[in-house]
Amino acid sequence: IDACCDEDYEQAYESFKSKNLGKVAVRSSATIEDGTNFSNAGQYETFLNVETKEEFIDAVKKCIESLNNFRSQVYAKTFLNGDNANVINKMTVVVQQMVEAKCAGVLFTKDPMNPNAVLIECVNGLGESLVSGTQTAEQYKVEDGKSLENSSQILKEEDVQSLYQAALFAEKSFGVPM
To answer: Of residues 29 and 49, which shows the higher confidence score?
Structure first.
């Protein structure tokens, strides 16, 4: 959405409404959210199950405003240095159709505590409770194709192995840990 006034927001809403998307997620995506040496994910606002025009306009505005919220400013000053300090932080607002998720999570191709293992963290339902810290994730670790320390409550072993293979593919494709 490239908007600067309420009329633009209303036109964007009408465009999405005409596609019969139903409820949507209004998500922020900024240029300094993730990098090789830093992770800023979760610093900006996300709104789920947005349905009405008023909710939509409010969510878009709050996403854009979160670019300058206290949390993101402190993070940028604390963790961004060197070449990254000169990056101009810009915000894009992404609107996606809501999906009722059985589970959601985060996958690290290198477990921060064991770089030989892939780490998968997941929760039941939407991932917002995981990234906001309101729900404790189940952890699944895989090293050399062998599962370690897996809780096995949310994911089945074949799911864990499928995610492990996807992690290997992603890291090989991009050439760096993801």
So the answer is: 49
**102 burial type by CB count under 10 A (0-12 exposed, 13-18 middle, 19+ buried):** exposed
DSSP class of residue 21 equals -
Q: Which residue carries 């300094």 as its tokens?
A: 32
What three-state secondary structure class fits 3?
coil
Nearest to 101 by CA among 131, 123, 121: 123
Q: Is 105 left (phi over 0), alpha (psi -120 to 50) or beta?
A: beta
Greater pLDDT, 88 or 30: 30
Q: Which two tokens stand for residue 164?
A: 């492990």
- Confidence at residue 163, expressed as pLDDT on a 0 to 100 scale: 95
DSSP 55: H
Note the pLDDT tens digit of each residue in 101-124: 889 988 999 998 999 999 999 999
